[in-house]
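Tutorial handout. Part one gives the primary structure; part two gives the three-dimensional structure as tokens.
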Amino acid sequence: MKTAVFAVTQNGAKLADQIACQFDYDLFVKKGRYDTLSRLNFHDYDSLSNCLKDTFHSYDALIFIMATGIVVRTLAPFIIDKRSDPAVVVLDEKAQHVISLLSGHIGGANALTKKLALFLGAAPVITTATDVNEKMAVDLLAESLNLSMEPFDHLKYINAEIVQGNPVDFFIDQALTNAPYYIKKLQACQIEAKLMEIKTATCFSRSSVILTEQLNIPNGAGLLFLKPRKLAIGIGCRRDTTQAEILQAIQTACEKIGKSMYDIACIASTVVKKDEPGLIAASKTLSVPLYFYENVPMQQMIDLYSLDISPFVTKQIGIGNVCEAAVLLASQSKKILLHKTKLTKVTVAIAWEK
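Part two.
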């Protein structure tokens, strides 16, 4: 998880430095508020608000060592959606409390809070209702199993039912790929799921969570569907790279994150590669769509997420990053699972489809 630590005072800078060094996080300190830092590579800033304009969307998690009020007021203009916002954790400069402030489940702020509290000997402050009532939150379950939630606005209703102790049924579609795997995973969370043939939403009599791959089930009230996420693949390659070389690179990249090429939903690249025979053939072999993007939206992704750029690639096609920029556009998600990985004649980046 790409993480940044921010401090505004000298004491805060010392604590931020300690955390950044321990976990290899990026460090941001207000100018003039530090003496000597162990972290040799750090960033200083004049305005926290201006700094966050460039960094909020570039990290999976943000840790602030300052007053919670400062963080709330500064972050307010940047917050969009719990599915895409980074985890936000706040500490006081004496490390007495670690507060999970934003994106506790999906973003991982609650887990990060516990991790930091354990390291610092601090008190973790977690206020999500499911956690304080020691109940399993469905969004946390879905995130741990790499499942998407549809319709997402039903999540709060299901979690509320669980917190209040009302019955919520769990079903697994018997046609779901690897259904026995999901049964075991739910059992490990003390959830007994029923295996059944799921054809329509009319077969559920009360609030239910359904694991399925089916796309044509109408959404009924009180129903939340969990569906296995698919991967978006971003590709950059040399001219005349063969189909076999591209497929081998994709397979190697998928193996690095413990996934299969069968999990792929789409491939994306630069419009410069729209007539690349090997790339076109690879997408046909995998039976997935192939998207090509113009330089302008690709550059927007590079700027927004502060992606690393290659001067050579910039000279060749006008932008300095292909695979990561393309996969961010194709996935509509900022969560890159595998950052730019250089393989034989191919660069690959992987993200979850949103």
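Part three, for discussion. The radius of gyration is 22 Å. The mean pLDDT is 90.
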